[in-house]
From TrEMBL:
Membrane topology of the entry: Multi-pass membrane protein
Annotated region (Disordered), positions in chain: 1-30
Compositional bias annotation for Basic and acidic residues: 13-29
Biological source species: Favolaschia claudopus
Protein name according to UniProt: Major facilitator superfamily domain-containing protein
Gene Ontology CC terms, in alphabetical order: membrane
Length: 493
């Protein structure tokens, strides 16, 4: 089923009234002579995309940074005394439950979220959910039982469900396929700053212990929740709409520049045209097997990313016997290394137009790193393993986002696939938090083994997709039927 296209592209009734002539784009002149494109020199084109990058990628990346900070600060709060104060222990598995329940609602509300961002627009939709989860984070600082915190985590999952798939989808609508991974990497890189320096920030906030009658771990939640609410107000001023809408709605490109951006997208994959939303057509995208292959890949890589995000401070403190201060601060260097790997890979992946081999390379690096962390005894070697494992799973996130976007056509199909992909990531979060059990401390060998197996399965799935894409592309070369409903479209390996 994966090599057949669904015949519906995208759209909503909101999109009527755009200033861009869609029929002209579809039947326009050749790319090299199209007046919407040749109106700008190469230097001018680069300047336009730099403005798009600053307004779109940087803004979304900063919001993602706050999202990750709010989602993964449980580990920092844990070593700051949260488990003790809220009665979490190995008997009731309170910490695991609090970590876990978030992902149920986070996964459940994903499909609705990608429909909602089209219905209400990125600015209103993203701003509202960010402000709401900021309020929930504030509530974390005032709970007195782990059961209450678990309830708030369920609510947090509802609001955060729309953010990441919404951002991934919005980014994919603005860039041609082979210019996307650099942007996905920058978006993810800015967000990962939260993971890199969240521990250092948390350690600083812990020093407020006793101020205002609040424990240090409570200050982590209250300050970060306040920052989230403030960011939501700023985000309302900066978030841009979909590129095919009138530039009057985002006011940083002229109409001529907007036409240039949309024309390039249309030539790249011919899916700018929109149609009204129909539930049956939207759900029919689930008949495509590669949609679920991408979801499995993201589920397996996020099993690693969430496990590291939630448990790395705890492993550094309990397993490698670092002090609380060192455990919080030593989280940062592996994420800095991840950023370097991510940027280099994004550049060459776009240049070489390769996606799957990059994912496989990262999986192999993750297997090596997890092996060193879980089965060696020297702390220096184990910490080096942390570097490899952290870089591998984090670099795979933007790689997989781009792998999926490059091989899917149609606005609603990409919306559906973004939801299933990030929904798979939520399930990965469930796995990552459940396989690291308090009873397995301080080594957490079963959890590390589960992450090793996840990387191995990813290699097999990429091999299957590569075989599938190769067969489909051969049919295109032989003059056979179209794939993804567009003549000449070929899958990206």
């Amino acid at each position: 089923m994966g090599e057949q296209s669904t015949a519906y592209d995208s759209g909503s009734d909101m999109e009527k009234g755009s200033d861009i002539d869609q029929s002209e784009l579809k039947h326009g002149s050749d790319y090299a002579t199209d007046p919407r494109i040749t109106a700008f020199t190469d230097t001018e084109q680069k300047k336009i995309y730099r403005r798009v990058d600053l307004r779109l990628v940087v803004t979304l990346g900063c919001m993602y940074m706050i999202s990750l900070l709010d989602r993964t600060n449980l580990g920092a709060a844990s070593v700051a005394g949260m488990q003790r104060d809220l009665g979490m222990n190995a008997k009731n598995n309170g910490y695991t439950i609090v970590s876990l329940v978030f992902f149920f609602t986070y996964a459940l509300f994903q499909p609705l979220a990608t429909v909602s961002i089209r219905r209400y627009g990125p600015r209103i939709f993203l701003t509202v959910i960010i402000f709401c989860w900021g309020l929930v984070m504030l509530g974390f600082g005032f709970v007195h039982s782990w059961q209450s915190m678990a309830g708030l985590r369920v609510i947090l999952g509802i609001f955060e469900a729309g953010f990441y798939p919404g951002c991934v989808y919005l980014l994919s609508t603005w860039y041609p396929r082979y210019e996307l991974q650099k942007r996905n990497a920058l978006f993810y890189l800015i967000g990962s700053t939260a993971s890199a320096f969240g521990g250092i920030l948390a350690y600083g906030l812990m020093q407020l212990d006793g101020k205002g009658g609040l424990e240090g771990w409570r200050w982590i939640f209250t300050i970060e929740g306040t920052l989230t609410c403030l960011l939501a107000l700023v985000a309302y001023l900066l978030i841009v709409d979909f590129p095919e809408h009138s530039p009057k709605s985002w006011r940083f490109l002229s109409q001529k520049e907007a036409d240039f951006v949309v024309a390039r997208i249309q030539y790249d994959r011919n899916d700018v045209e929109t149609v009204p939303f129909h539930l049956a057509s939207y759900l029919r995208n689930g008949l495509d097997s590669k949609v679920w292959a991408f979801a499995w890949l993201y589920m397996l890589t996020t099993t690693n990313t969430y496990a590291i995000a939630y448990f790395l401070p705890i492993i550094l403190q309990g397993g490698l016997h670092f002090s609380v201060a060192k455990a919080q601060c030593l989280v940062a260097p592996p994420y800095v290394a991840s950023a370097l790997v991510m940027v280099v890979q994004a550049y060459y992946s776009d240049k070489w137009r390769l996606r799957g081999p990059v994912v496989v390379f990262n999986c192999a690096m993750g297997i090596l790193g997890l092996g060193l962390l879980g089965y060696m005894t020297n702390n220096g070697v184990r910490y080096f393993g942390v570097f490899l494992a952290t870089a591998a799973c984090n670099a795979n996130c933007p790689a997989l986002l781009t792998y999926q976007s490059n091989n899917i056509r149609g606005q609603w199909k990409r919306a559906f696939t973004s939801a299933t992909l990030i929904g798979g990531g939520a399930i990965g979060g469930i796995i990552g938090t459940t396989v690291f059990r308090a009873a397995d401390a301080p080594g957490y060998r079963p959890g590390i083994l589960a992450c090793l197996i996840a990387n191995a399965i990813m290699i097999l799935i990429v091999a299957w997709l590569s075989w599938k894409f190769h067969r489909a592309n051969k049919r295109v070369d032989a003059g056979g039927k179209h794939i993804e409903g567009y003549p000449g479209f070929k899958y990206t390996f």
